[in-house]
Amino acid sequence: MSFADLAIALGGLGLLLLGMQMLTDGLRAAAGSHLQSFLERTTQTRLRAAISGFTVTAIVQSSSAVVVALLGFTNAGMLKLRQAAWVVFGSNVGTTMTAWIVALIGLKLNIAVIAWPLIGLGMLTRLVKQNSIAAHIGTAVAGFGVLFVGLDTLREAFTQLVPLLPVAQLEVSGVGGVLLAVLAGVILTALVQSSSAALAIVLTASATGVFSPLAGAAVVIGANIGTTVTALLAAIGATAHAKRLAAVHVVMNALTGAVALLLLVPLWWVSAWLSGGNDVANISAGLAVFHTLFNLLGLGLMRLIDNRLFSRVESWYKLPPIRSGQPRFLDKTVLQVPAMGIAAAQQEQQRVLRQYIMRLRTFLRDSSDDVSHAEDIATGELLEHIYRYISKLGEQNLTGAEALALAQLHSNHGRLVDLRQLVEAFKAASPELLDASLNHQWRAQLLAFLNGADMATRSEAEWQQGVQQIQQSRQQQRQQWLQQIAADQLAPTRGAQLVQLASKWERSAELVKALQVGS
Q: Which residue ranges traverse the bilayer (predicted)?
């Protein structure tokens, strides 16, 4: 094998990875926000979530890309852990489409007849329909063609490589050999950052006789375990939501891999029987069958243990307390997709609002000493996190609707800062003065207005009615204080302090209403 053959093999690998990247990026860009709405509509049950994961991955041709997107959706509060996990389980099955495409099409047809027209058509569409969904679809179509060219180039390179390899030494023998093949699959997937691309390489190599059947099957198991590396890298420094989903992904693939290793021989026997035997001509189809059985096995295992698994990972990664200054939803996995980043920032702003509502209710219950200085600092830190985050969001490419939503985030941030100043003013006031600023009726109105139990279900009209009642009570109380000052029954300085505090209570209600209605 000459240097030219090695260079061609390297080029074939590069074309394969480039094609996978173009296909994934093109389809993901074409889907845009539709992917989010699709997942929100189709993840209400285990079966529907798994089918959604299968469908999206079969189209996008990258489970890693789907899992990273799901980390973002989960972080932003768009999907619950159970929903996202079952999409991941279905996504694993969706990767089998790559194996079938390679086994049944990519290794058996005249590549030139399919690939070159796809590349030409795709790039022509991209040039003619710039800055449109059609342009992204054109990129995906061209990527599909480049992928096939890469497969064909790799196949030719492996054909030159086989005579130089001691193929007999690549036979799997014993536990050590199996584990070594699994490790090879893990490393291959970690390097190319795509289990689909790794499977395409393995199937292409096996079709030219590089791998024995069991060696190929063991590498397939390793490739499935290796796909968790992308999720683990994306979860580094992420929130507890992302770490939970990444942990579920790792446990699912590792457990399925362990069971598949125990059943390696019978699983391969079934795969070989379904694909026509152990001949080199049939091994790629056999590995595609094996890969499908492997992932269906994982789906069955998760159906048995999913609730226990979810409970366990939730105990491993605790969410920050509601009064904590650490973000629950903001991290790098959602920053690159503005729709997810905006949703995550909205969730964090609601956390801050709930913290301030709890403080206001504490003051209304004559328990101002219960509000610690540490809690005030924590909320201030969270506000700083949010402000830095929405500033970074403004640097992204935003649609018109996203730009409007970002402007609303900035407005709400200003309201939260104002609310923080009011809370600090209440904390600085003496308990006796704070109590005097509220009569029984007004205190009851404010407590009912700040009742968190029904906030989410109130209409805008109900919020407005509550504010108007508070405003009327404040005006009546203010008039009473002014009359007492005129009759020398109340010192002017104290009266002014009471009027100012009453105005602050009214302003607090107006801010809470604006933040709830505008969120």
A: 53-73, 111-128, 135-154, 174-192, 221-240, 247-269, 281-302
